[in-house]
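Recap for those who missed Tuesday's class. We walked through two folding examples back to back. For each one, the amino acid string is listed first and its predicted structure tokens come directly after. Nothing is annotated here on purpose, so try labeling regions yourself before you check the end of the notes.
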Amino acid sequence: MSSSLIRRNILPIALDAKAVSPVTAISGARQSGKTTLVHQLLKDSASRFVNLDDNSVRAAAQADPDGFADQYPEGTLAIDEIQRVPELLLSIKAALERNRKPGRFVITGSANLMQLPRNAESLAGRMQTINVNPLSQGEMLGVNEDFGRFAWELSESRQLPADSPVKRSEYFELATATRFPEIVDWAPRQQRRWLQNYIDLVISKDVSETFRLQHTDRIEPLLQLFAAQPASELVAANTARALNIPERSVPGYVSALKNVFLLRELPAWGNNITDRSIKKPKVSLVDPGIAAMLNGVSATGLELDISSALAGGTLEAFVVTELAKQQSWSEVDYQLRHWRDSRGNEVDVILQNPQREIVGLDVKATSSINNSHFKGLTTLRDKAGSCFKNGIVLYTGTKALPFGERLWALPISTLWQQS
């Protein structure tokens, strides 16, 4: 399969944004497909494309940011890797004062543009941001998947998927595979080399140069720690102790890793009912292949040690990653959270819509299921009351099964089998 033929599910959303917004920002990790998406956006329209990773282009932008931003008023100016010259955002604002037509600018950033140290302009009201992730499993299969919509409608529709053909061993293959478009077809050894070089590049160029973070030699050990404890709660004191670094420095490193899209944070969920909730986020790496490479683990090794925290956490992190990708195009506007109370009751993932309705998900590495696997979801259902729409255990078995009031067991592959 050629990655160049893969249709990105976010493309219609990006086209809609460009049609109405003066600035469309394409944001996401390096090599996640942002530039390819931009060229698809610019197809059949008057446009000019410039890349600030080019030394000469960057020098021109730094020398005359106002002139650079105003160089192509008759069409769309696409500026790749704008975090390299953050002052251009102010110049774009000035250019829009003179000409605010839709589609005036398309910009990309491999860092969170709103967190750039030198960024004094948010372009609020002028810019829509489109988040681009590495490929989803649905995109790999040519499916526009939407598990969020399916999960919210499950109790009403009761339309359960057919038996899944995916075996438990295949889930571990998926949960340790990289999804960067350029290398999905490469041999595993080539992928590992590319991923190591990728981490080195992001740390040296984006973390060090863009965010001016000191002691960047601590970044890779921090990533290795998070990779070894996938989908675990972030406790700054424990992290600092494990790496022998000051506790006060941990939030800065975590923030930088989030802002360059290497790390994903899953906030804790709670409302007035769940006053016993413990408010610590979970963290996981954004690409399963990076986590597996840093851990030095394989799918076979995880399956042989299926009862380990690493095996279960790896599958949980994979599920969170797939849901985070689908957020960008799902028909349901949802946020991702997790829940745990002081008594040890917990639910791995919570989807919450703007009406504060929730769907709870627990992820199990087991291929068989019983009532004990629903303990956390049952507790959450009783606490949340009418806000609780459905509770789902995603597992490595093959059958979709009802397990009581608003409770279901589904194969993990349901994530990408629903469109």
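Example two. Treat it independently of the first, because the proteins are unrelated.
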Amino acid sequence: MDHENEYHDSMVKMLELIWGAGYMAPGGAGNVARMLDGLEPAGKRILDIGSGIGGPALDMAATHGATVVGIDLEEPLVARANADSEKAGLDQRCTFLRVDQGPLPFDTNEFDVVTSSGALTQTEDKSALFAEILRVLRPAGWLSVYDWMKVDGEYSADMRYWFEMEGLTYAMVTLEQQAALLGEAGFENVAATDATEWYRREAWHEYERLRGELKPKMIELLGTDEAEHFIENWRAMVVVIDTGEMRQAYCRGQKPVI
């Protein structure tokens, strides 16, 4: 099935303005550190799923001493990430590939760690992806992800409106469902930690910056109409975070030693 690119240039510019150069998910380098906490990444081989324009993977290589392969569905994002890796002198330890949906194009037991920041939020068949991640991990290897999630029940009108403003495809599950899916796939030592309160504070700070100090730069980069759209997008997002309907979490699981 062909993938239709969803991250147009204006959205990428906007996300970088909010979250920092190279980042398309919250938290920047601090988010990378939280995903890798306790996993001793130095010298290890990491697969970053949904690597986007490469900021997290580049930080894993430059700051944490890992060798990283990033994969994404969208060719423009991959091209940008590879260019930035070469510019930073990291292209021998940090490379990016465009992949199709479906089985991962890697050998069994190839990676020590698999990470993902936000990509599982948009993955419909999580069970199939978790099975593939388990396959490419080495025994005792870890999957560690940051994800946006929902609560039980049907989406509210506020949630559907936010999806409309985002213009992205979402396939959210609850924190409990994600943990259960990891266990069903064969992971052990599964842990799921709610991070909603942290991002609720961050999201409100981002919203205030968008309405204030960042607005002139947004208009310069995107034009008035796009800038106003993104401000409304963030307003809609903080509404569903405040109501508790949209949640954030860190999840991890370990491949058994057979």
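Answers for example two:
The CA atoms of residues 152 and 174 lie 7 Å apart.
The domain at 9-254 is CATH 3.40.50.150 (Rossmann fold).
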